[in-house]
Each structure stands twice: as C-alpha cells, then as structure tokens.
Amino acid sequence: MTRRAAVKAVGVICLNLALLGAAATRGHSVTGTSPTVSITSVSGYAGHAFVYAQVSDSIFAYPAPTGAGHQSPFFSEWVPEPIASVSCPWIWAVYVFERTTGVQINPPSPNTPLPNFGTATTICASPSSSPVDQPAIADAAARLDLDLRVFASPPTALVGSPTVVSGVLNSRLTRDLNLYLSMAIEDWSVTRWQLDFGDGQVRTVNGPTGTSINVPHTYLSAGRYDARLIAFISGHAQAAVYDHYGNVHLVRRPFTVEVGNHAITSAMPGGSRRYRPPQVAVGVVPSLGPITPATTLAFRHIDALRGALTTLAIHLVVVREGLITIDGTPGGFGLSRLTGWRLDGTLSDAPGNSGTTPGAIHSAGEPMRLQWNAPNHIVGARAQDYVVPVTLIVETRFPDGHVASYAIASSFSVTVNFAAQSG
Question: From CA 335, how far away is CA 114, in angstroms rounded?
Fold first, then answer.
C-alpha cells in the first residue's frame, strides 16, 4: 500500500484585538486565493473575557502539506484504503499526530463500527480523485476563555490592619485542528495588573507575574469598599493555510485583551485592641536513637532508662490559643507555632558535651539530649519524678495580621527507675 505523509500545521494568526471589536486581514497563497483571518476579542470586567479567532477559505480545500520544513506543531499521514462499497470504493484514512510527542490526536472512539482504520478522520474519494477535489472545508477557529476571581482576606479587617486583595486567573484554550486550515492562540501572559482598592488608592504591578497575584493594602478609615482588579493580557495567535502545492502560509500578530473582577471588603473601627498570649505547654517525644519525625503525639510525662542518653523531640502543646479583644469584645483566636526553646535548670548527667547545655536558645527542630544516672529520689517513702524546666519561644499570628512573640515557661516530668544495662 502506498503511504502518503502530510503535515497538519497550526500556523500563526493575525490578531489585533480591541474591546468588543473585530478586525480582518488577508493571507495570500501562491495561487492568488485569499483566505480570510478574522478576530474578535471581548474584554470583560465581571470576571470573564475571551479571544476568538477564525480563518476561512470557502473557495479551495487543500490537503495538509508533506514534509517537516515549516513551523507546524502537527503532522498528518494520508493513507488510501480500499473498501467494498459501490458509493465509496476507497477512502482516505487521515492520521494526525503531535510533532513533539508523536502521539496521535484523532484516534477513533472505542465503539467505532467496522471498518475501523484506527482514525476518526476518513474522507470518501473516487479512485481517480484526491482530497483536493472534495468539497472545501470552510473555516477553522480557536478560542481563549479567561476567568478572573478576586477576593479579599480577611473580608472584614480593622482600620489600620492589612487586607490582602488576591486574584486568580483561570483559562481554557481550544485549538482547531482542521485538515486544511488551522488556528491556535499561543504564548499569552499577564503583562500588567491594576488594582483599585476603592478608597482612592490605585496600584499597578507590572509583569509578567503569572496568573495569580496577592497585594496587601491597609484601609485608614472605616467603611465598605469595592476592590477592583484588572489583568492586562498580551499574546500571539497564529493561523495556517495550505496551497495545492502543499506549501504552508503563516500569519502572526500580537493581541491584547483585558479581564477584570471585584470583591467587596470592609474596614471596622480599630477600637482598643488587646492581644492575649496563648496558653501552651511543652511536650516531648523520647528516643534512644535518632528522632523519627513521623509521630505527632507528644507527652508531658515520660519514663527514661537510668544511665542512657535520651534524645527528646520538643513539641508545642496548645491549651488555648491567643485571643484578640476589641474594646473588650473577643475578635478571634490567633494561630501559634513553636520557633525555639531553651533548657532551664542545671546540667544533666550526660557525659562530656553530649548533653544539652542549659541557657542556650535552640531552634524548634533541634532535639534535646539528657541523661539521668540515678533513679528517682525517695522523699517521705514516695518516689519524686525529675522535673525538666523549659522556656518555649512561641510566635502567634492574630486574625488582624498582628504577630507577637512570647517566651513561656513550662516543664515536663521524667520517671527514672530501671538501668539501661543490668549488672
């Protein structure tokens, strides 16, 4: 069987976008035909905008060109397949692939009836004709949908406290992979963000900045504000048409479009604010070897072996979170984390420099190493546990954005009875 290879290209489109406008340009083939490229862009300020591009040629239809010497992300192979049909004695079976991966992008559906040639694209032809003589495929189109979501955190803040205005841009891109004409929108990005915070303050952030943004802002007076965000987007679209010699003709121009949305936020009078520290305690996880970070359960009391160096992972146990009050009224709980710790008291029985020295500040992830060479002391016929004093360095972030650091005294207890070795 003779195998004919043909390349399906997504060429470059001519785009010049304007708000709710459409423009047209021409791409000329060597035969003088004039495929028309039309573009419509719609900028939207209620969260949605789109770019729609179309290339059409209703006069001629040409097969995708053979070879790889032009800019095309796709290629196709045309294979004549004879079938036992009076109306269609043979067909063109067309297989279309991505050039970079070699993956076929037009496979048939699983329930395709026989004869199944392994492609969803077939064209009936006569033994003496080629697809060039078939009815023209009139147009191809591509569409880029843009959706912008805007929100403020917290939605209600105190006057003088920061509010973060955020925007997240989502997109959906549709390419047309027509056999004779092709259209795609490519390499677009946000080039500029414009923020109007609703209180007379405006900020511009130049890009490219990705498809999301977070900008803090402080409202200086109480009120309800409409924070508006606009994304200015630029990119390129491309279109390709083919003449009957198999040559591809590309047109490429830039485009711009805008998409905006808003979020309502409020600022309350600041009032008299007080920040109550959290109530916390130290928790430990003992080990005779390296600390395993898998466990999250910490203990206030542990048993230790006499004469063995014990490694302790230090944890923060939150009894009650920090609280902000505004004019005496609770305004929300904070979120605390351990940033460091200090061993207080006296040296343990650890030999040499193997134990933790009291008085030094350690980071939250550093372990404590202690050793007890004597069992619990007996006082009044009762064994007295060892008490290990620790100062916790705690950072608390409150709902209004205020961050406070506290040094909080705590302790844990240890029972030492059995020796690490017998004899």
Answer: 65
Structural domain including 295 reads 273-419
Distance CA(81)–CA(29), nearest Å, equals: 30
Residues 248 and 333 in one domain: no
Cα distance between the two ends of the chain? 90
Q: What is the pLDDT of residues 331-356, one digit of tens each?
A: 889 999 999 999 999 889 999 889 99
Q: 396 with 249, same domain? A: no
pLDDT attached to residue 59: 53
Q: In the predicted model, is pLDDT for residue 14 greater than 60?
A: no
Burial call 219-238: b when 16+ CB within 10 Å, e when fewer: beeeeebebbbbbbbbbbbb
152-175 pLDDT, tens per residue? 998 888 788 889 999 999 998 887
Strands 156-158, 248-268: pairing is parallel
Residues 288 and 187 in one domain: no
Q: Work out how many domains the chain is built from and give that number.
A: 2
Q: Quick one: CA dihedral 111, 117, 119, 123, positive or negative?
A: negative
